[in-house]
From TrEMBL:
Listed GO MF terms: hydrolase activity, acting on carbon-nitrogen (but not peptide) bonds
Organism: Halolamina salifodinae
Name of the protein in its database record: Imidazolonepropionase-like amidohydrolase
Domain of life of the native organism: Archaea
A Pfam family per the record: Amidohydro_1
Start and end residues of each Amidohydrolase-related domain: 48-383
Gene3D superfamilies, alphabetized: Metal-dependent hydrolases (3.20.20.140), Urease, subunit C, domain 1 (2.30.40.10)
CDD domains in UniProt: Met_dep_hydrolase_A
Entry-linked InterPro entries: Amidohydro-rel, Metal-dep_hydrolase_composite, Metal_Hydrolase, Metallo-dep_Hydrolase, OTAase-like
Length: 384
């Protein structure tokens, strides 16, 4: 057993000066463990022990290059090596659970098994398999194209058969696909309903890539569990999401990566769409915060200049847009765990997985503290 001794525990339940006793992959005790018989004592006096970050939206096969579409033609082996390196970087940076929302073939599902079997270093992985997308729609080159409710049902069932933990679809166009209109609806309301019904029958959560206002509303009315991006959210869409407890995963890191690197080789059409989306995001945040939309952290890591090891930057961006530091902590821990259907992580309490970070400063006072973990434990294994 390992004892993190003398630190301050900070999670969604509050702040507590306490030791944290780790027994393998499980937290055994939070409190006074000075008399415990342990194998190792780690002095974390003056430091802050927090739950590991949960990134609910990544793309393991992508490497933050300027032109994401240039990945077309890469072999599955090449993408697998890249995914393994991205997982290592995530773990070192303090991401202890990650969810891939779209990869070629079974790449992310296989990565999940490789991490679970100890073959590669990384956070616990959930995977949506291949995105369900209309023919020629956003991300079609690595998705499962399907048209009409019947084809959509089959596409969902294929992902479930392959072992997907979630089902992801493209409800609107996107920034990085040539020719796609960012805000335009792609899957129809009937197709979205078929997707949600099929996933719900298997007890699997759903996520919808949505930029445009109508696409957001279509997805929420269909019963989707999370709206990814939500860039053109209006007041009505925000209230609808709040009423139905639909999570918002804003992925600010994706837009920041584009607009802050507009002259670094990103295709011109993607820059134009990204800048338009970024201009609309401030209003979306105002509507979401006013309505009380539940928010979970997701970075869309792998998109241009949006590196997997920079996940903690998302928390600073959320605070920049008006979320307080406590809300950012919740978004990266308990809210993200709830969205992913995990009841064994997100808090520091007895019986939870020992997914822990040791930070130099209190993240409730300085959100940048998340970017500099001094120690990282993934299921009790120290990876940093």
């Amino acid at each position: 057993m390992r004892l993190l001794e003398g630190g301050t525990v900070v999670d969604a339940d509050g702040v507590l000066d306490a030791d944290v006793l780790i027994d393998g992959d499980t937290i055994e005790l939070v409190g006074d463990a000075s008399d415990a018989t342990v194998d190792e004592r780690v002095d974390v006096s003056g430091q802050f022990v927090v739950p590991g970050m949960i990134d609910t939206h990544v793309h393991l096969m992508m490497d933050a290059r300027p032109d994401a579409e240039s990945l077309q033609g890469d072999s599955e082996a090449t993408m697998a090596y890249r995914a393994a390196e991205n997982l290592r970087k995530q773990a070192k940076a303090g991401v202890t659970t990650t969810r891939d929302l779209g990869a070629a073939e079974t790449l992310a599902i296989d990565a999940r098994e490789a991490v679970a079997d100890g073959q590669i270093l990384g956070p616990r992985v959930q995977s949506a398999g291949k995105n369900v997308v209309m023919t020629g729609g956003h991300g079609h080159w690595f998705g499962r194209e399907a048209d009409g409710p019947h084809e959509v049902r089959k596409a969902v069932r294929e992902q479930l058969k392959a072992g997907a933990d979630a089902i992801k679809c493209m409800a609107t166009g996107g920034v990085l696909t040539t020719g796609a209109q960012t805000g335009a609806p792609e899957l129809t309301p009937e197709e979205l309903e078929a997707l949600v019904d099929t996933a719900d029958a298997a007890g699997v959560p759903t996520a919808a890539h949505c930029h445009g206002t109508q696409g957001i509303k279509n997805a929420v009315l269909a019963g989707i569990d999370s709206v990814e991006h939500g860039t053109f959210m209006d007041e009505q869409a925000a209230e609808l999401m709040a009423d139905r407890d639909t999570y918002w995963v804003p992925t600010l890191s994706a837009l920041k990566g584009i607009v802050e690197n507009r002259d670094a080789g990103i295709p011109e059409q993607a820059v134009e769409k990204g800048e338009d989306a970024a201009q609309r995001m401030a209003a979306a945040w105002e509507y979401a915060l006013d309505a009380g939309v539940p928010i979970a952290m997701g970075t869309d890591a792998g998109t241009p200049f949006n590196r997997h090891e920079d996940a903690a930057h998302e928390l600073a961006y959320m605070v920049e847009y008006g979320l307080d530091a406590e809300g950012a902590l919740e978004a990266a821990t308990v809210n993200a765990a709830d969205l992913l259907g995990l009841d064994d992580t997100g808090l520091i309490e007895k019986g939870h997985r020992s997914d822990l970070l040791v930070l130099p400063e209190n993240p409730l006072e300085d959100v940048l503290a998340w970017q500099s973990p001094e120690q990282v434990y993934v299921a009790g294994e120290q990876v940093r």
